[in-house]
Structures are given as structure tokens and as C-alpha cells.
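Usage

Read records sequentially. Each one opens with the input sequence:
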Amino acid sequence: MSKLKIAVIGAGSISSAHLNAYAKNPEVELVAICDLVEARAKSVAAQYGASKVFTDYRELLADPEIEAVSICTWNNTHVEISIAALDAGKHVLVEKPMSTDIGKAEELQEAVKRSGKKLQVGFVRRYSGSAKVLKQFIDAGELGDIYYAKASILRRLGNPGGWFSDRDRSGGGPLMDIGVHIIDLCWYMMGRPKVKSVSGNTYHKLGNRAHIENLSFYKAADYDASKNTVEDLANALIRFENGASLFVDVSFTLHQKNTVSSVTIYGDKGGAEIEPDFIIATEKHNTILNIQPQVDYPGFHMEEGFQNEIDHFVNCCLGRAELISPVEDGLEITKILCGIYDSSVKGEEIHF
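and closes with the structure output:
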């Protein structure tokens, strides 16, 4: 049986999650690696057994052997490379955020329609085991009408620096990097309602705190403490057309005791905490219950999530599954993200 021939564009840190998952999928042949830094591309290709190396994604996309690509590049290049890949007849898995601009996201949606190819947005938290189980409970009506959700990822020290802290390339700071994950997870569990309005705030108060000693944190490969043009903290209240609402706050750095990650949704028949633990709160026979589903990994487990995401993408490319994070969802999340920044700049609620 022939294997799906895959290439990975961008050999930075997140690419390893894609590459490791592709390597474990028996129906994939990893053909090529592309990166602006040729030495890095060659090193990664050798590590994962890819036979071809490119430094220009256009040359890679011209290769007829390649059937699908993972795009793991800077955020500001996602749309450009995705459209080029679709127009070249390739299926696409594009990392989040799909776009940092609403207009460009709409252009990508049109490119998907005209190409007839699959585009999966890398909303990896949708693919965790706990998320899959909770979605089954929700789809069966166990939580009823979900009308509110709140989500936080508050790092006390965690600005990765490098391109992450360069707004020209990243599109923003913690909101674009980690906020997108929890906003999408809540929105997905809430039934993907249309966004009505956004009221948001961003703060630039602490910087990257590169002076801090005795406490380590992840640093991007191109870390430069002198460059930081993104927010430290963002928060927002998001209203949807169906009357539901979502509150979110995220930070790269904050004067806080511990780093916090929390995602909770509330319905009229039950609620659920999905991060950091997995608990369903409901009532039966006039008694309040906390139900703890038994799953391998309560909360988000990175290796499991990416493996499930990559396996699903492969199945979609092979015509055996339907997309669960399509371009339309990427557009709606882009509206929310851009709306938060726009609201913060204007000091007013943004209506769609």
C-alpha cells in the first residue's frame, strides 16, 4: 500500500511535535524538510529520514511527489504558504493561529474552496483524549445548553523571546501563542457559535523580565532579550450570537505565585473542567455530583494531542475522515483574536 508523502515547512521547535507524530504513523512517508536555515533543515531531515531538503518553500511545493504539508513557520507567513500549497495541489495542516489578519483569513478560505484540497487548522487541543470524551458528553446533551465558559493560561515568567516576541512575525504575544488554544477549545465545546462582539484589553507593563535569575523558562532559538514588541497580558469578554459568553485571560509574565492553566465550561444541565483536570459537575436525584471520567491523560497531553491531530489529518488526506478543524473555524477564531487587539487599541467593544 502506498504511503502519504508528507513535507514539513519550518523546522523550528513546534515542528518536532509534527515530525514525531508523522514518524509513528505507518501510512506516512516523510519526504522533505524546508527551513530558512539550511543547516537546520539538513539536520532535521537526517534525524527523521527525509530525502529532500529545501530552503525555499516554493521549490518544495513544485515537487510533484509531495502530497501534503505541515506548515510550522512564523505566524505572519501561515496564510501565504497555505495558499501557495493549496494552489500547488497539496493538502495542508497549518499551525495556529491560522492567520493574524481577518482579510487574509478570508482569502485562505477562498483558496480552500477553489483548490478542492483539505486544510486542517492546528487546533491541537481539540484532539486530546479528554476533549474527545467531553465532546461526546456534550453532543449527547449531558451538559445541556452551554452558556458560559472561562479560560486562563497565566504564566508568571514565560516570554519565549525570539520571533514569539516580535509582533511583526507573531501577530501578538500570549494571546496569539497560547490564548488561541484555550479560546478555540472553549468555542469548540460551546458548539462553535458565531461571534457577536469582543471587549478586550492588552497590557505592556513588565516586559520580558530577562533580568530574572534563578528561575528558568523556555527560550526560542533566536532569543534576544532586547526585542519585545508584544503584550505581557491580554483579557477579553467574548459574546456570541446565541447569548453565550466566554471570558479569557492569558499572560507571558505576571506577578503571580504560580503559573495557572484552567479551562471550564458551564451548561444548564452540567459543567466541566477540562484543564488542568477532567471533571464533570452535574446533579442526579437532587444530589450534586462531581464525575471524574477515566482517561489516560486528564487535561492536555502534548504527545497524545499531536499524535491524534496528525493521524486525523492523514485520514482526511486519504479520504477516510472529515475535518474537525476546517478553515471556517480558523476564520472565526481569527475574528476573535483580531477583535481583542482592536478593542484594546480603541478602548471600546468591537461588534461583528
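Summary fields computed downstream for this record:
- The chain has ten helices and 15 strands.
- Residues 139 and 174 are 31 Å apart (CA to CA).
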